[in-house]
């Protein structure tokens, strides 16, 4: 699990709160963590490798070569992780840099959790604060609709204990496999409810679907003519996969193939 985010959002404090000890240096000065720091720990007989990373600033604000190296190391840490914990500052809302960091995790095909830190000092809280903040997250980070959101505080340890359970959950979701026979039952149901679109008297036929990979789950959709597949119907298939099997916290990859491409 890699912890990423902008400088000073509380990544190192979260690591210490998770471990229950001061394992990494915490400072109010942004940029204290320069390298990706690996920490092994076990909880409920499950072994975790936690990677604390340097805060990622906007390119224009990176002056020193050592900080450029730190950001590069943070991105490489994302590449070797199963789960990415994107830490946001509740008091700052969603920034452009947050979008870039989260976008890198998404494009890398990693399971993602959005952790809103410093929730203890979020102002004007009421019984609908989390709903409003989550709605803002869904708008600003539209590509991460699948990512669960956790509101926590590294300082007070509020909901920190839930992090490892959520990490285990989304890691399992990203590693889930669905049998081809079950997938094709879903294909038949999908077509019955919402038949594929046609274009100039040419009709798209979805022949079958199979799962090719995990982390992230990858599905091959075999059709008669791939060029007839519209992105909206592909989105419909993805939504049905999530509705039927969950896949919470993980991106899905859907690949469309035509007749004769089964061996590819």
Summarize the structure.
The chain is α/β, with parallel strands linked by helices. Helix content is about 35%, strand content about 20%.
Q: Please, could you describe this protein's structure?
A:
The structure is a single chain. This protein is α/β, with parallel strands linked by helices and 264 residues long. Helix content is 34%, strand content 22%. The strands form 3 sheets. It has a 6-stranded mixed β-sheet with strand order 2-3-1-4-5-6, with helices on both faces. A hairpin with a 4-residue loop joins strand 9 and strand 10 (218-223). The chain is elongated, with a radius of gyration of 21 Å. It starts with a strand and ends in a 7-residue tail after the last strand. The model is unreliable at 24-34 (pLDDT under 50).
Mean pLDDT: 88
Reported for the largest beta sheet, the result is: 6 strands, mixed
Specify the overall morphology: elongated
Straight-line N-to-C gap? 32 Å
Tell me what portion of residues adopts beta-strand conformation: 15-25%
Radius of gyration: 21 Å
List keywords for this structure.
about 260 residues; alpha/beta; 6-stranded mixed sheet; 3-stranded mixed sheet; 7 helices
């Amino acid at each position: 699990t890699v912890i990423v985010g902008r400088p000073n959002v509380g990544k190192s404090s979260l690591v210490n709160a998770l471990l229950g000890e001061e394992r990494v240096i915490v400072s109010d000065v942004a940029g204290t963590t320069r390298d990706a720091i690996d920490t092994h720990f076990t909880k409920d007989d499950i072994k975790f490798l936690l990677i604390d990373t340097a805060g990622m600033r906007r390119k224009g604000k990176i002056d020193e070569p050592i900080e450029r190296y730190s950001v590069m190391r943070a991105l490489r840490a994302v590449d070797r992780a199963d789960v990415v914990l994107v830490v946001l500052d509740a008091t700052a809302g969603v920034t452009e840099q947050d979008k870039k960091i989260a976008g890198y995790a998404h494009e890398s095909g990693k399971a993602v959790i959005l952790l809103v830190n410093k929730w203890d000092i979020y102002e004007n809280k009421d019984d609908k604060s989390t709903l409003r903040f989550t709605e803002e997250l869904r708008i600003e980070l539209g590509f991460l609709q699948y990512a669960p959101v956790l509101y926590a505080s590294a300082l007070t340890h509020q909901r920190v204990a839930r992090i490892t359970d959520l990490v285990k959950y989304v890691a399992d979701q990203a590693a889930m496999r669905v049998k081809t026979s079950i997938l094709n039952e879903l294909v038949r149901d999908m077509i019955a409810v919402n038949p594929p679109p046609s274009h100039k008297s040419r009709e798209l036929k979805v022949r079958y679907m199979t799962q090719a990979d995990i982390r992230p789950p990858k599905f091959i959709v075999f059709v008669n003519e791939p060029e007839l597949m519209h992105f909206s119907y592909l989105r419909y298939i993805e939504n049905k996969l999530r509705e039927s099997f969950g896949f919470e916290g993980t991106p899905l990859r859907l690949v469309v193939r035509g007749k004769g491409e089964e061996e590819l």
